[in-house]
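User: For my dataset I need records formatted as: sequence, then structure tokens, nothing else. Please produce one.
Assistant:
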Amino acid sequence: MIVGVPKEIKADEYRVSMTPSGVEDMTRAGHRVLVETGAGTGSGIADDQYAAAGAEIVAATADVWRRADLIVKVKEPLPDEWPQMRPGQTVFTYFHFAADEKLTQAVLKSGVTAVAYETIRGPKGDLPLLTPMSEVAGRMSVQEGAKFLERPFDGRGILLAGVPGVAPATVVVLGGGVVGANAARVAAGLGANVFLLDVNLDRLRYLDDVMPRNVTTLFSNRANILDTIQWADLVIGAVLIPGAKAPHLVRREDLKRMPHRAVVIDVAIDQGGCFETSRPTSHAKPTYIVEDIVHYCVTNMPGAVGRTSTYALTNVTLPYALQLANKGVDAATRENPGLAAGVNVKAGRVTNKAVADTFGLECVPVA
């Protein structure tokens, strides 16, 4: 099979979907790998490293898309890439369809099979291809929140850790999954007072056992959200409903309860965001202000730390990419139900129920 690795074109996206080690594994399995010139530059990987591993370096994006049977990417295809997709081709990447109806319609029209990283299931029902980027985003959310709380970035002028005689910041984390747990741990490590909210009591019991003493766990309901955000210097949205649009847990009018120039970091923005006032931003212009609250809603947070993120991501994506290349999408998904859960669109039909429900479309089983 011919496997294509195009250069990511999303603004400030420095990740790449395959490392030279992955290329070597693919070529050893008998596949041809096309890598676009400069695809790995943002992650510190040169073209000659790919070539030494057995890749063919291709100068034009269009040639990668035209020749490859399997496209392996990091981020969803952007409008400039939509015309490149063709029937019979498989595209393996993050899609986050529920947040983008235009992308969904473009993929349906193209006839490709869209295998989404974010809905592939592991043996225990986990989301193994979402986990490493959730770990990165969770840790980054506190790092970015601490920066934008500084007054030169329009924040309150608050130091997360405080100092002797001055109270530390209050951080509220909405969601106790991978993102939320990583965010809470980092914020607590910096010395902040942290409130961690979730709807799963078993998960809260576990987090209560493993978190530092300056993390307080609370059941996530409307009353507790309103009660905690009124004291919050930093609120991190870390809610995930796999494949579906994120619920708006914080409404516009709720922001008026918060301290002036507090910061919200919406890590759920890829799935539409969990703040009503959230809208996608980029690393070049990451924030805006609504109701005197600083909003950070960058859709590809891990892209800023491209080298770390690339290696963390490809550690988990490569085995699935090899299955798709070795067996083809039909056989691979028949043999691996977890991989089948990643198929969101196939031959012009939606095969993921959450995506179908979001847009009122018919859901057709993968088989």
